[in-house]
Specification:
By secondary structure, the protein is of the alpha/beta class. Helices cover about 25% and strands about 25% of the residues.
């Protein structure tokens, strides 16, 4: 019996015939990387292959690595197996990875969303026989409000806070969510400030995309300067001494998890905006239909529930364990989360607290 084109092992998703891994979570010789989030692009591989717009992102995060950039739809062969990268719509540089050999076609999505956010290259469906999909929000309860409405609500929230003499602190992870928010914030309301981790990443991305002007929050930034402005910060900054100079402030989080009533309360956030860089339930189903696939492999998220539903709909669906974490995994690394958070004498205590990922 011919083995599957892609298999799951203790290092990642492996193409035996090409001897290459897709988004491996342990060091390997050759890795094709879907996007720059830390749970998908890890340090230690000998050679990285990714979309060219993701190259500066993973270099910023991983240092000087051996990496090759590819164009969208560019076919490249490894040991007779054809590969190509196609827009995933998740964040800037995010790709679906198409794998073809002897007429058999697989697509690995990495992370993806169908809504055009105006920042990432929009998702494009890719025909295949087998489709590997995330299920981060694979429950019928998840149904996203269009981005235009969410951003209108965020800008209205900021405007009201400014009128009340408060600083608006908006949490979103430093790669992807922060730039999506920044792209659609209304700079006519006031000045936009950024935490160091977000400013550093945005500087990497500005050559690819026009964003509103931002001002980095530093030790010299005063409360009076910040009042009425909006501060973009990573979730790891919440509850740290870094926020002291923003008093009086109001906090908000932009995340798909804000759809859960208790999520905002558990995280001690004043306001929650439901804005995700992943598909909702209907988006996942639409994506699967548009591939024309017969087999679906469900990874990271509500895999059991989602795969059971797909089987009921006539698909050959199953689950596989991975070390991808979806939106929960897109928190900041220790190096980023401590960057310019607090004075040096307070960093040791702050680091210990932020080492623990959000649940």
């Amino acid at each position: 019996m011919t083995p599957p084109l892609l298999i799951f092992n203790d290092k990642g998703i492996y193409c035996t015939r090409a001897d290459v891994y897709l988004d491996p979570w342990r060091p390997v010789e050759k890795a094709i990387i879907s996007h720059g989030h830390a749970d998908h692009s890890r340090w230690g591989h000998k050679h990285y292959i990714t979309h060219h717009s993701n190259v500066p992102i993973i270099k910023h995060r991983l240092g000087e690595i051996n990496v090759t950039g590819k164009e969208w739809n560019e076919t490249f062969s490894i040991n007779g197996v054809k590969f190509s990268l196609h827009p995933a719509g998740h964040i800037i540089g995010s790709s679906q990875i198409r794998v073809e050999c002897k007429g058999e076609i697989w697509v690995f999505t990495g992370d993806y969303k169908l809504e055009d956010d105006g920042v990432a290259v929009p998702y494009e469906p890719v025909k295949c026989h087998s489709f590997i999909t995330e299920c981060t929000f694979g429950l019928p309860a998840f149904k996203w409000t269009p981005q235009a409405q969410v951003m209108a609500d965020i800008n209205a929230w900021w405007q009201q806070n400014k009128q009340d003499g408060r600083t608006s602190v908006l949490f979103g992870y430093s790669l992807g969510k922060a730039q999506r928010l920044l792209k659609h914030l209304d700079p006519n309301i006031g000045k936009i400030y950024t935490h160091g981790a977000i400013e550093n990443m945005t500087e990497v991305l500005r050559p690819m995309m026009e964003f509103p002007d931002t001002t980095r929050v530093t030790r010299e930034t005063t409360k009076d300067e910040l009042k009425g402005g909006l501060v973009l910060a990573p979730p790891s900054a919440h509850g740290t001494p870094w926020l002291r100079k923003m008093v009086p402030y109001v906090t908000a989080s932009a995340s798909g998890w804000m759809a859960f009533r208790g999520a905002r309360r558990r995280r001690a956030i004043d306001k929650g905006f439901v804005l995700s860089d992943h598909c909702d339930w209907q988006g996942l189903l639409q994506a699967i239909r548009e591939t024309g696939c017969e087999k679906v492999i469900c990874t990271h998220g509500y895999t059991d529930i989602f795969s059971k539903y797909l089987c009921e709909q006539g698909y050959d669906a199953r689950t596989e364990e991975t070390q991808y974490e979806g939106e929960m995994g897109e928190m900041e690394s220790k190096a980023e989360s401590t960057d310019e958070l607090v004075p040096d004498e307070e960093k040791a205590a702050a680091v210990g607290k932020k080492d623990k990922p959000e649940k």
